[in-house]
Design a protein that fits this description.
Largest sheet: 5 strands, antiparallel
CATH class: Mainly Beta
CATH superfamily: YVTN repeat-like/Quinoprotein amine dehydrogenase
CATH architecture: 7 Propeller
Number of helices: 0
Length: 421
């Protein structure tokens, strides 16, 4: 079975967290970075069947621990890269000037992290996204690094053991310049035992076919709308094949290089035994992140997308497609995990402007709680990083200073303990 890591994503009723859960059909997710501002809300998309302002119960207990960082994180991924049983965070960070580097934040097991020496991404390869998986089946998590600074490109950093990485060569990904290239969906798509990846480009997706030795071959191009920000894989129709979803920042194409700019769109690709069928589009309000989860425990998966317009939830995405919108500030990262200890998925999102993280529990009659969060959260994870009890802490990767009473300098990695939820 291939080894991979995700950051708290629910597929069906299985929670994959850190590098402790494995599943043959469910896909890992790559780390999240700050999306571009999304477009204005289309009022016609607001469904009356869900409250637009969820009720607010007792606030979160703002207990936690913050570790100051020297280098400002652009994005990151969580997993045990040192092999000591504790969750670590691997970050693409800004160094000096325009340089970027790969930095390992080693978890101490008490909610604190130690910042390692950066591995600079030299030359024109800057780094815009990162995902963790065991690409060579040696038992260590390697890092797939994406770059959108010039020609879209990738490179794999080999984990030599204990979290020491060695950079591989950079490889251009066929496709147009100008895409975000911040996220990847990682899974064995062709059932050959090797991990593959799907990455978003400017106006399309590209499949990277892995060879099991940290190398990829550029595979099929999948058409989409402009600005595909995020990608997710799961078996939406329970037919045994992984299906693919992407969240794009534009509407449907009107003509060549001309897209409807009044809204955004979700594109769904049915898996057909190793490949994907022609995509089906859904017009939605402004979105930039997408996850797939069984929110209500009925055994069927929902597609969840967030952006400046709120949280869009699509039930039965490959069937009837009932779309609902919750008006919750959600222009930041998206996380789905059991944060309240109810053995059911909670939905966490945040707002850069408000400096808050919002937790929605109990879908479809969602209640909302909020807590102050650090300035400009670039990634959120759920993992047991402090108590070793199997309970999930909320981990925030901050590019700016955390709020009081956390007086640590900017930037930081912030852990919130969720004992009283």
């Amino acid at each position: 079975m291939s080894r991979f890591v995700v950051s708290g994503v629910w597929f069906s009723s299985l929670l994959l967290i850190g590098c402790t859960s494995h599943h043959e059909r469910d896909a890992p997710r790559a780390a999240v970075a700050a999306p571009d501002p999304a477009r204005e809300l289309d009022p016609s998309l607001i469904s009356p069947s869900l409250p637009t302002e969820p009720e607010v119960p007792e606030a979160w207990t703002d207990l936690g621990r913050t570790t100051s960082l020297k280098y400002k994180p652009l994005t990151g991924a969580i997993g045990d890269v040192t092999g000591d049983g504790q969750a670590d965070v691997v970050v693409i960070a800004y160094l000096v000037g325009n340089a970027t580097g790969l930095v390992v934040l080693t978890g101490a097991g008490d909610g604190s992290f130690s910042e390692g020496t950066p591995l600079e991404l030299e030359g024109e390869f800057g780094g815009s996204g990162v995902g963790l998986a065991d690409f060579d089946s040696d038992g260590d998590l390697d890092a797939l690094i994406l770059d959108a600074g010039g020609k879209p490109a990738y490179r794999v950093a080999n984990n030599l053991g204990s979290g020491r990485f060695e950079l591989g060569s950079a490889h251009v990904i066929p496709g147009r310049d100008g895409g975000e290239l911040r996220h990847a969906a990682i899974a064995d798509l062709d059932a050959d035992g090797d991990l593959d990846a799907v990455v978003p480009l400017w106006d399309s997706l590209r499949i990277l076919e892995g060879d099991g030795n940290r190398n990829f071959t550029a595979g099929r191009r999948l058409s989409s709308a402009r600005d595909p920000f995020d990608v997710a894989l799961a078996d939406l129709d329970a037919d045994g094949d992984l299906d693919l979803v992407t969240a794009t920042g534009a509407g449907f194409p009107v003509s060549a290089d001309n897209y409807d700019t009044a809204g955004a769109s979700l594109w769904l690709y049915r898996g057909d035994g190793g490949g994907f069928a022609k995509p089906e589009g859904i017009s939605v309000a402004a979105i930039s992140r997408v996850e797939i989860a069984d929110l209500d425990g009925d055994g069927e998966l929902e597609v969840v997308a967030t952006g400046s317009a709120g949280i869009t939830i699509v039930e039965d995405p490959l069937g009837v497609r009932e779309t609902q919108l919750l008006s919750v500030a959600s222009d930041g990262p998206l996380l789905i995990a059991d944060l309240t200890g109810t053995l059911a998925p909670d939905l966490a999102t945040c707002s850069y402007i408000q400096g808050q993280v919002h937790i929605l529990s109990g879908y479809p009659n969602s209640s909302k709680s909020s807590l102050g969060a650090g300035d400009y959260v670039t990634a959120m994870f759920a993992a047991d990083v402090a108590r070793n009890e199997g309970r999930h802490d909320l981990v925030l990767l901050n590019a700016g200073p955390p709020p009081q009473p956390y007086a640590a300098g900017s930037p930081s990695i912030e852990v919130r303990f969720t004992d009283d939820l």
